[in-house]
From TrEMBL, chains A, B:
Any matching Pfam family: CinA
UniProt record similarity statement: Belongs to the CinA family.
Listed CDD domains: cinA (cd00885)
Segments forming domain MoaB/Mog: 4-173
HAMAP family found in the cross-reference section: CinA_B (MF_00226_B)
Organism superkingdom: Bacteria
Gene designation per UniProt: cinA
Name of the protein described by the UniProt record: Putative competence-damage inducible protein
Length: 417, 417
C-alpha cells in the first residue's frame, strides 16, 4: 500500500514554521511498512488544494492531510476534501458536545461562534476525538477503496491522535502483521555502524534493518513482515540478538521510546547515584538535556557553567597550576572539573566538558573541535579526548551526546565491579 | 513570478531528517516577493522525480530543487533534470579543479572516483561554486523562459550558496526592486502585536507587513516594491518609524540578522557589564543560548543550575527563611537567586529563573507554567511573574526568551538613568 502526505497551511509556504509533522509521519509510515513516495505542502487555497488532492488520489492508496482544520474562514481542508470526494458536511453532535466541554474547561467566557464550524464532519467519516484541542480527526473510506485521513496541524494535537488512533487503524489495514524493534547505539560513528551491519543488510530481506543517523547516535530499526505477531517477533528476535552481540555496550537501549538522557537518569536512579555537572564550551546544554527528563531532580542537584578560569578555580577547585601548565582545555582540567563539581555538591558523580567550539580560539596544538570530557565516579576519574567536526552548534551537540555516553559507560562499568 | 520547491531525497520520505531547507527557502522567497504555492518532497527515484519536475515546469516559473547532487549512484537530480529538459551533461574543468583542491585540503589520501561525477554539469547552465562542499549549484535558463535551480542538500552548503549567489540572482530577475526591513519584537504576545498593526495591514498594499511568530517573539517584515532601491527605502522607512512609535521598547532590533541573545550580549558589552545566571526549571537552557553567541565569554563568567533547595542556599545564598516561607518557586526566591548569582561571581548583573515546567508538581496555588524571573542590576532587583502554557519543553523555551527580554529591558532602563 502507498501513502502520501499533504501538509496544508500558508504558514508553511511562507517559511513561518518548519514542517516537523511531515518528518514525524514519514518515520511512522516507514515503521508501518507503508511506501511513501510524495509529500506536498500547499497553502490554504481551494483550487490548489483540490488539484493536489486529486493528483494524490490518482496515485496513492492512503492520503494523510494535516492542517487547515481550524475554526477560521481560512481553514478549508475539510470543505475541499468533501467537495473533491463529492460528499457533504454534516453536524456531529458528539463533537459539538466535546467542543463545549473543552471550552468550559479552559475559558470562563463564552465559546467563539466560529468554533462550532469544527463540529461539522464529512458524511460517513470515522470521527477521531481530539484530546488536546477542538478539531476532530476524520477518516474517510471512499467507495473506490482509497482512504483520506484528515488530522489537525498543531503537533501537540496531531501526534497523540496519530499514536492513539491512526497508527492502530493503519496497522490493521496491512495484509501482514509488521513487527519492529529498535536498537539505539551511541559512542561509535555512523559509518562504523553501517560497516558492522552491511552483511546483514545485504543478506536480509525479512526482517529488514534500516539505520537512522541522529547527532552522535545511530538507531537501527529491525522490521519483520509476518502472518502473526508471534511469527514477527520470532523473526526479529534473533536479528536483535545478533546486533547485541556485534555492538555490545555501544547499545544503550532497545526501548523504542527511551532517549539517551532518560537512560542516563534511569541508570543514576538504579544505582542510587547523584550527579553534578560542570560545563564550559557547552554552557548549560548538557544540563538542559538532563533536566528535560521528567523526574531528573531526584538525581541532579546542581550544575556549574564555568566559562572563565576564575570560575573553574572558585567553584570547581581546579588548581591554578593545572590551568597554567595545561590550559583550560586539557585532560587534566576536565578531570579536576568533574571531581570538583561532585565534591562541591556532595554528589557521587561529576561530569565535565571543556573544549573549543569555535569559530575562534583554535591553535595548531588545540584546534577548534578539540573537547575533553571528564567523569568522576567512585573516586575514579576518566577523561576522554574528542575531535569533533562542524560549526559551533554541532560541536556542542556532539559534546553533549558524548558526555551522556561517557556517563552511561562509567556507571555501567562501576556497577559491574 | 511563481516559484516552486522540490526537495529530493529518500531520507526525507523515511522521516530520517526534518526538511529545514524548505522552511529556509520559503522564507527567502517570501522576502523576495516571489509567490510560492507548492513544495514537494520526492525520493531519489528517476520516474517520480521526473513526473514532479514536469508538473512543476507546467505551473511555476522558477523551480528550485535541493538534494541529490552527491557523488553516489543514488544521487540523480542533475541527471533527471537534464533528461527532463532534453539537455546533456558535460564535464566542467573549473569544477573538476575545485573538487581536486577541496579534497587536497581535507584529506591526505586520494579522491574517491565517484566524486568526479560531481564535475559534470548540465550544458549551458550557470555554475555556482560550492565553498563548503564539492557539488556546485546550477542555474538552467530554459528556452521557454523557465528557470530550474539545482542546489546541494546539506544546509551548511545550500544556505551560504543561496545567500551569496542565488538570492542576488533571483533579486535581479524581478521587474521591480524589492526593499525590505525587519522589526523584531519580544515581551508582548502575538495577538497583541497583530491587533496593533491590523489597521496598517489592512491599509497598506505597498509596503506590505507580514508577521512571523517565533517562540516568545514576533518578527515583522516590511517589504516595498519600487522602481529604484532608494524609492523602496523611502517607502519602507516611514512604516518602520510608525512601528517604532507603536511598539517602542518592545522592539529589540531592526537588524535582520541579530538574535535576542546577541542583542543582550551586545548590550552587556556596550555597558561594560558582566553577567551571572541562576537557573532552576530551565536547567541550563538560558545559559546555553547566551554561550552560543560567539564572544559571550567576555560578559559571562559563570552560571549556576540550582535544582535543589540545598544548592540554592549553598551557591546562591538564598535564605532558608525565604525558601520555607515562600517556597522555591516564588518572587522572593527568584530575586535572591539573581542577587546571589551576581554576588558569588562578582558580576554586575544576575538573572534567575525558577518555575514549574511540569508535567508534575503543580498545585492550585502554584500551577504548572508559573515561572518567576528575577534580574539583579545595580543593586536593584526586578522580578516578574509569568504564566506560560504548553508542555515542559515549551514552558522552558518561553522562560528563556522572557529572561532574555527582562535582561534587555533592565539594562536599557539602567543605562537611561
Amino acid at each position: 500500500m502507498t501513502v502520501e502526505l499533504i501538509s496544508v497551511g500558508t504558514e508553511i509556504l511562507l517559511g513561518n514554521i518548519v514542517n516537523t509533522n511531515a518528518a514525524y509521519l514519514s518515520e511512522k509510515c516507514a515503521e508501518l511498512g507503508l511506501s511513501l513516495y510524495y509529500e506536498t505542502s500547499v497553502g490554504d487555497n481551494e483550487g490548489r488544494l483540490k488539484s493536489i488532492l486529486t493528483t494524490a488520489l490518482s496515485r496513492s492508496d492512503i492520503i494523510i492531510l494535516t492542517g487547515g482544520l481550524g475554526p477560521t474562514a481560512d481553514d478549508l481542508t475539510k470543505e475541499v476534501t468533501a467537495k473533491t470526494l463529492g460528499l457533504e458536511l454534516v453536524l456531529d453532535t458528539h463533537t459539538k458536545e466535546r467542543i463545549g466541554e473543552y471550552f468550559n474547561k479552559i475559558v470562563s467566557h463564552g465559546i467563539p461562534d466560529s468554533n462550532w464550524k469544527q463540529a461539522e464532519v464529512i458524511e460517513g467519516a470515522i470521527i477521531i476525538d481530539n484530546t488536546n484541542g477542538t478539531a476532530p480527526g476524520l477518516i474517510v473510506e471512499t467507495q473506490y477503496g482509497k482512504r483520506v485521513i484528515l488530522l489537525p496541524g498543531p503537533p501537540n494535537e496531531m501526534i497523540p491522535m496519530f499514536e492513539q488512533d491512526i497508527f492502530p487503524y493503519l496497522n490493521r489495514l496491512r495484509p501482514h502483521v509488521f513487527y519492529s524493534a529498535m536498537v539505539k547505539i551511541c559512542g561509535i560513528g555512523e559509518s562504523k555502524v553501517e560497516e558492522g551491519i552491511k552483511d546483514l543488510m545485504d543478506r536480509q530481506e525479512n526482517p529488514t534493518i534500516a539505520p537512522y543517523a541522529k547527532t552522535g547516535e545511530v538507531h537501527l530499526r529491525v522490521t519483520a513482515s509476518a502472518d502473526t505477531l508471534e511469527e514477527g517477533m520470532n523473526l526479529v528476535k534473533p536479528v536483535v540478538e545478533e546486533l547485541k552481540e556485534r555492538f555490545k555496550d555501544n547499545i544503550y537501549t532497545t526501548d523504542e521510546k527511551e532517549t539517551l538522557e532518560e537512560n542516563v537518569v534511569k541508570l543514576l536512579k538504579q544505582n542510587n547515584l547523584t550527579l553534578a555537572t560542570a560545563e564550559s564550551c557547552t554552557g548549560g546544554l548538557l544540563t538542559g538535556k538532563i533536566v528535560n527528563v521528567a523526574g531528573a531532580s531526584s538525581v541532579l542537584n546542581s550544575g556549574f557553567i564555568t566559562y572563565s578560569n576564575e570560575s573553574k578555580r572558585q567553584f570547581l577547585d581546579v588548581s591554578e597550576g593545572t590551568l597554567k601548565e595545561y590550559g583550560a582545555v586539557s585532560e587534566k582540567t576536565a578531570g579536576e572539573m568533574a571531581m570538583g563539581a561532585a565534591r562541591a555538591t556532595n554528589s557521587n558523580v561529576g561530569i565535565a566538558i571543556t573544549g573549543l567550539a569555535g569559530p575562534d580560539g583554535g591553535t595548531i596544538d588545540k584546534p577548534v573541535g578539540l573537547v575533553y570530557i571528564g567523569c568522576f565516579l567512585n573516586d575514579k576519574i576518566t577523561v576522554k579526548e574528542y575531535h569533533f567536526r562542524g560549526n559551533r552548534q554541532k560541536i556542542r551537540e556532539y559534546s553533549v551526546v558524548n558526555a551522556l555516553d561517557l556517563l552511561r559507560r562509567s556507571i555501567i562499568n562501576n556497577s559491574n565491579f
